[in-house]
Amino acid sequence: MSRVPRSLRDSGVIARRNLLNIKRNPDWLLEGTVQPIMFVLLFAFVFGGSLGGERYREFLIAGIFTQTVAFNSSFTVVGLANDLQRGVVERFRALPMSRVAVLLGRTVSDLAVSVLSVIIMSLCGLLVGWRLRGELSEVVLAYLVLLLFAFAMSWVGAFVGLISRSVEVAQSAGLLWLFPVTFISSAFVSAEAMPTPLRVFAQWNPITVNADVLRALFGNPVRVGMPPPTSWPAEHALVYSVGSSVAIVLVFLPLAVARYRKVASR
Length: 266
Fold this sequence. Notes:
Elements: H1 3-24, H2 30-51, H3 53-71, H4 73-85, H5 88-93, H6 101-128, H7 136-163, H8 167-176, H9 178-183, H10 196-204, H11 206-218, H12 232-235, H13 237-264
């Protein structure tokens, strides 16, 4: 069997193993399912009345989608750190399998978790007043862009998990950097209302642009109570969104593979 099909086969085996672990420990899904629902209800009904009411709820959902799949990278962080600490990676290394299979299997299985999260959030969003107003092709494209971003963030999580010294460190490291990156964006509020340094960061933040692409393709408001954004990323949102996701994969995939080889060779 040639190298690529073998790597894909081995990655599929690892992904299945990771999903079976989730099936045996369903409490691992709480963060990816219950937390998004809590954010939707909190922002839609506690803050939504003062931020734009029904229009804000439609604006909000795309931001929750983007935030959730970004936060789901913590599954990759903790999963890899846990496998390292328990010696599972050492056992995989002793098997005649592709070196990239452990990482690709992990990111693919966590992408499946993101798919489940997106389905649950979509249903929850429909219940609180969110509506899909775009064409079917645009809606499908929006979900594909979102899942590409989720896959890219999983590779960031893979690198963070491999450089973490323990599962406890991984649990903190997996989310610590995500909070400022997520909230200094247009996921929940318009970046145009932020002070200049934060506004510039938010405008170029992939989370902002991914959320804006989803809003545009879903037919939801891109901004509420503020003029439409005019920055370069906003004017080329789809290109920038896809390009930034691809760039993240191209940067962090080789970093994660190099780190995995270094860790596995100890």
